[in-house]
Amino acid sequence: MNSETIDREVVDVLIAGGSVAGVAAAAALSQLGLNVLIIEPGPAHGRRLAGELIHPPGIDGLCELGLLDRDLPLGSEVKGFAIFPSNLGADAECMILPYGEAEGKQPSGLAIEHTLLKERLLERVQQFPGVSAKIGARVTALEGDGPFTAVVSSAEGDERIEARLILGADGPMSQMRKMAGISHETQRYSGMMGVEVDDSYLPHHGYGNIFLNPVGVAYAYAIGDGRARIMFEVLRDADPKESIKTHLSFFPEVLRNAVEQNLTENKPLAAANYCIIPETSIKSNFALVGDARGCCHPLTASGITAAVKDALILRDSLRETKRDGQFDFTAGLRRFSRICGRLQLTRRTLAEELREAFLAQTPADLLLNQCIFSYWRNSKSGRVHSMALLSMLDSSIFSLAAQYLLVVLHVFRLLPHWVKEKKLSSWLNGVFKLFIKSLEFQQTAITQWLKA
Ligand SMILES: Cc1cc2nc3c(=O)[nH]c(=O)nc-3n(C[C@H](O)[C@H](O)[C@H](O)COP(=O)(O)OP(=O)(O)OC[C@H]3O[C@@H](n4cnc5c(N)ncnc54)[C@H](O)[C@@H]3O)c2cc1C
């Protein structure tokens, strides 16, 4: 590429990625009076499964940013979760966890088909003051060692764009992260396969139905227009056909029949589930937002809500630094990175603990699994606090550490059951492991507090 021939443009903010994280950040920064250019390659070749269920704090955030309107409903309302704990025995009752159990609160989330959500948000944000988008283009290089300049490539050629702030909102496999020289840890957990069926087959319409079983987690929820998304986890090295067969054996019969019928006619959509932890989320005039800044197992359905929170935190962090009409981007980004890092730690830890407990592959995990359900069945306050953590209404690692301890205390309630099953030594071993883990959580919480 001959740099002399590249056109040059200057903007306040350049955002690579026009999905949830990029659009939310654009809307948030437009509220600060900054001009924003979004670069989005456009619909990817072949659709993939991605986030559709949005918790109430995510919906509130999208409304606050002017990207959604509660009076103009889109998708399908979600009142909470209906969890089927099949690995506790076939007769275990479904556990209902509503968002709105706390006194006087009736919040609800939404589930919207991912492509539709993405299209609507991108369309809407382009009407905001100072926001424009180049569709059919992508950022292909970051030049310099910081501050960076972005090179944007499209069918018309290459263009160099200078920006006071460049955001990488290009998803979990972010190339922007690599271009900025930010390394990351990756763990691939599993794959996900999904189909659509009529939403009348759902056991609990208006809830995210979650089926737990030894081959992973399966989800079923309405996405609007009478349709429902059904997703199955396929663990690493597992045979997808066998996994789906096992998942279906835990479904109510009508839903199972509808999915089986669909699978004979259609090829399921697929996606991979990763945990990604970048070494940092900021470097010079560059910052990562959304999944590029880190993602975890989709079990907690918190990716979109986290992306919206990133945008709000970035806006508020920059706003705090405004003096004489000028923003101090360096100080603003540092504050953004600190706050988002804390939120992400809580979100990731919760997803990992729930995943291990729900898969229940060791006696300690099975004990934790039973403690969680015992806690939820016996404590309204436990359900309220758990849903606050799950929905990111509460992202404090202290709350997570406290809740973990309260859950683990249920081992004593479960003791007679484990004695009856002649598994006292497994119980003792599990109790030891869970209390050690709980101590580690308290330690992490205190370290966070000292750092803050
Ligand atoms: C199977 C599955 C189920 C999930 N379920 C849920 C759920 O129920 N609820 C939930 O909240 N979250 C869920 N998630 C997570 C959720 O999908 C993500 O957190 C969310 O989509 C993140 O949005 P994003 O904008 O950060 O990234 P993405 O949605 O991945 O968007 C990245 C964008 O960047 C663009 N791009 C890529 N490269 C470039 C480039 N070089 N230059 C410019 N643009 C570029 C892409 O075209 C794309 O539009 C799920 C994830 C998976 C895999």
Identify the notable features of this structure and list them briefly:
FAD/NAD(P)-binding domain, 7-stranded mixed β-sheet, D-Amino Acid Oxidase, Chain A, domain 2, 3 domains, disordered N terminus, 8-stranded mixed β-sheet, 452 residues
Short overview:
The chain is of the alpha/beta class and 452 residues long. It is built from 13 helices and 18 strands.
Sequence-ordered SSE layout with sheet pairings:
Blueprint: E1 7-16, H1 20-30, E2 36-40, E3 53-54, H2 56-64, E4 76-78, E5 80-85, E6 95-98, E7 109-111, H3 114-125, E8 131-135, E9 137-143, E10 149-154, E11 157-168, H4 175-179, E12 184-198, E13 208-213, E14 216-224, E15 227-235, H5 240-249, H6 253-265, E16 269-278, E17 282-283, E18 286-288, H7 303-320, H8 329-359, H9 363-378, H10 380-390, H11 397-408, H12 411-420, H13 424-451
Parallel strand pairs: 1-2, 1-11, 2-8, 5-13, 11-18
Antiparallel strand pairs: 3-7, 4-7, 5-6, 9-10, 10-11, 12-15, 12-16, 13-14, 14-15, 17-18
Helix pairs in contact: 1-3, 1-7, 2-7, 7-8, 8-9, 9-10, 9-13, 10-11, 11-13, 12-13
This protein binds flavin-adenine dinucleotide.
The site of flavin-adenine dinucleotide has 37 residues, from α1, β2, β3, β9 and β16.
